[in-house]
Fold this protein.
Amino acid sequence: MGRILAIDYGQKRCGVAATDPLQITPGGLGTIPTHQLLSFVIDYVSREPVELIIIGYPRQMNNQESASMKYIRPFVEKLRKALPEIPLEYQDERFTSALAQRTIREAGIGKKRREQDKGLVDEISAVIILQSYLERRDGLGSIHLPFK
């Protein structure tokens, strides 16, 4: 079984996350400058078995695609050509930046570090995209178990 890789694509930098080999736990891999992303992914795939790549799919509140898809689509096409054996899927990424910022605040990371490390939001957003994909895949997104 290979890892699942997730990308939160941005015009300047991209957050990247991956699961463990059993596809249970997502973890951040860092923030990569956008112009280096394709090389990073190709290198990562050469070192680690990757079964699937998830790309954050930005949509507006009315479910329309975000304007940033005009930057994402060309990257996805380059990725498909470079790694044709690895399937690619989109995952809704609405609210991931807000969730990432809240997660960072709740983790007690100070304002100064948050301002200095702008890529931290991108990396955590990639983890949230990956976690959302795993929950959707496993059917956990809508299960509510009663307390006993």
User: Anything to note?
Assistant: The helical segments are 37-47, 69-82, 96-106, 111-116, 119-137. The chain is about 40% helix and 25% strand. Residues 142-148 have pLDDT under 50 and may be disordered. Strands lie at 3-8, 13-19, 26-33, 50-57, 88-92.
